[in-house]
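Subject: Sanity check before I submit

Could someone independently write out the structure tokens for this chain? I want to compare against mine line by line before I put it in a report. The sequence has 1009 residues.
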Amino acid sequence: MKIRTQLIAGMIVFGVLIICIAILFINTNLQAEELDRQEQVANEIALQVGELGYLSNDYILYREPQQAERWETKYSSISDLVSSLPAVSPEEQAIAGNLAANLRNTRAVFDDIRSSPAPAEDTAGFVQLSWSRMAVQNQGMIFNAGRLAHLLGDQADEMRQARTLLILALSGAFVAFLFTSYTLFFRRALHSIADLQEGARIVGSGDLGYKILEKGDDEITDLSRSFNRMTANLKTVIASKTELEREIAEREKADKARRKSEERYQTLFENMSEGFFINEVIFNSEGKPSDFRFLKVNPAFERQTGLKAEDVIGRTAFQLFPEADPARLEIFENILLSREPVHFEEEFDPLGRWFAVSAYLTEQDRIAVVFSDITERKKAEDALRESEERFKSFYENAPVGFAFLDPHFRYRYINQRLAEMNGYSVTDHINRTVEEMVPGLWQSAKPAFEQVRDTRLPIPAFEIHGETGAFPGITRFWLESLYPVVMPDGRFIGIGVMILDITERKEAELALRESRERLNEALDLLDAVTKGTDVIIAAQDPSFRYTYFNRAYADVIRRLTRKDIVVGMSLFEVFDGLPDELENSVKEWGRVLGGESVNRRVNFGEPGLSRRTYHVLHTPIRDFTGSVVGAGEVAYDVTEQARMEDELRETRNYLENLITFANAPIIVWDPELRITRFNRAFEYLTGRKAEEVMGKSLDLLFPDETRGESLEKIYQTLKGERWETTEIPVLHRDGSVKTVIWNSATIFDEETGVPVSTIAQGQDITERKAAEEALKQYAINLKRSNEDLERFAYVSSHDLQEPLRNVVIFTQLLEQKYGGQMGEEADEYLRFVVDAGKRMQSLISDLLAYSRVTTKESRMVRTESEAVLQETLAALKPRIDRCNVRLTVDPLPPVVADATQLGQVFQNLITNAIKFRKQDVMPEIHISARRLDGMVLFSVQDNGIGIDPEYFDKIFVIFQRLHGYEAYEGTGIGLALCKRIIERHGGRIWVESGVGKGSTFFFTLPAAD
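---
Independent answer below. Compare away.
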């Protein structure tokens, strides 16, 4: 077997093994890289979720639209990353699903927060709650992303371990291949080469008869056989030493000339500015060129193509440029067939460049190519050609007339537009003068033409008018421009003419003047009409400058900016100190100037009392061509309407929540007695869910025994009857019956008067009914007990009076008869007994009066309170005079009261004011009254010692005293008696005071009509 065959077979086996291991290695490496990338994606998700959390917190705290936009951008980025996550293993699918679900929940929570306005009374709590809600979602996503990253990292580590094992396997296979190759091939080859080497040495020493051993059938044996034939041939060849030396000298001379030529060629090859390369033509099985291989390229080739020599040499054209045009091979085929050089220009698409190419045959199947980059020249030529075509197209099709006249004012060239303006064809004008073609215009235009010819200075624009053949009998207007045409040598060759027909513009200017006059009249009328209203009107041009505004608009701007605007002032000048208003206004006006109409509400001003809401109509202003030349605004103040709508919306929401979450059961039914509303309290009352009963008949809510009676009452509501406290039993799901009292209202259609629905509110009084029965019995027993107690108190007070009077009388008799005889201590004891008896009498009298407030039948009639007060003052006059009291009284209105008990209130309050006066200060008491919501509010004001506020409630409790008997006399029942009397009359009593600041007692009684 040939060594080559053996080597090929071994290489094939090793190659297949290497390819298999390499494929496994590449696949493992790609999987590891993909897992690393996915791990990075998971970590990036966790990082961006953290950033999303910060954006969420910022938005919740500040509620700015820019932050919401940044949140949306970050959310989209995270969504894209989540979508790109793998879902191979079930665990990865579960985690990816959790991430997607968390992302959707985050979206839902953020949308809910964004749509929910922060409550004014608990902003901090709302923000904290919103932060917590977003944090829960963000932490869930970060946790899942971390889990996925950890899982992918473990899988990547496993792949890298497998890759390491494959590398070790590849190394082992390579070592095995080397060992096998050496053992099976190289040792055998080395023995044969050693024999060949030994034979060559022997033959080289002059032994031409030596023959190398020929064994086997491999390449070395063939070489040995050829070497033996060469040795045999050498024997037959006799060459003289002189001929051999001459041949060697000639070869050296030729080699020297060749080297010198090659050096010159190499210098030219490396320094020429044109690109140069030599290629070898490759033929297909049919003998036709199928490709060519680069053999040599010069530095200019590298500069002009951008390709490096080491990347080109040895590779074929279609390897370098797979998309190259195969038709180029025909050029090389023609060179091979004709053996003649070719020259051509072409655009080489793969490089996007133009080249001028020369190609010629150098030797069999080899072609040399010289080329230069002409891309810039081609671009310039194309640009020039395109420019000429555009100019020609513009010149021929321009809406403006063009002509070229020679020095004698003859038409040498004229475009179609000018020919039409003159009323003749283009050919009719050529070589004819202006005077011949348009005599009606020549006299007015002639001085200008002669001036340009004589001065060689242009006349940029002048206006002429007259008649032409196109419009006989009609005066037309033209705007004409003349330019001298002078050659580079200074020779004048003619005049260039440009003419624009401005007849329509002239007519439009006249119409515009008339329109402006009518517009000014309309604006004056508009100002007059809108004067004194809240309608604001304004207009702007495309530069955001005001062209009109009415007085109301100027007032609004002055209120917002404290500036007086004038026509011509720009929007930027008006709102330069209010960036938010400026941004909103520019956007709004910009949309309208872009052709869009706007019809919506906007808010002006800072939030607060000065903020106003306007309904704004923005409309683009267009000229007769339909082009937008401005924007107009009409707006009217709808602040109150918007406020009412907001309040109505809040009220609707409030009522909705009130019905749904009210503690009282609420139900609504239609005229067919179908249930249409069923709140939560009703669900609790009946044990049934709203969705279970909605749309069903009412009769399912009532027990069988009372259903007919209950429905009869309900039918009465459809006739307009209203329930106040109607009692209807309701059936609970568990079979129990609830006693419910109802009030209802029927809603009728305003136009037809037909009932639409009935709403009823109930109250479960099942337990209350039982409690009422128990309470009723308790009240009977309590009334009986109170009556017995009152009779006992009244009888006891009377029975105590008689023995107490005897004690006081006989003690006083002892004091009169034996005073001074039993010693000072006995006299003091007698005085104590007398004083105690008197106090006891006062206490019993006051207690009796206190009990009579409720036991004695009162006569609540119209009472003149001022008359009652005068009777009380007459009774107290000696004490008032003795204490030198200054007492003033305002007019007092009549009240509904018991005159006797009202006198007791006045007496106790005035007596207290006198009793608790300041020392060395004249007592002052002022009594007044005023009507207040069906009641009369009385006040008794003094300048006494005052009361500490902490004792305000204590002083109205029976037997409660703030001072000792030694300091101030009294029983401690007076104010308690006043409180009981006032409350019995349906009023209330209280005090306002301070220590040392006097006191004012207030009490209310029902006012008399």
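---
OP: Matches mine. For the report I'm noting this point. The longest strand covers residues 737-748.
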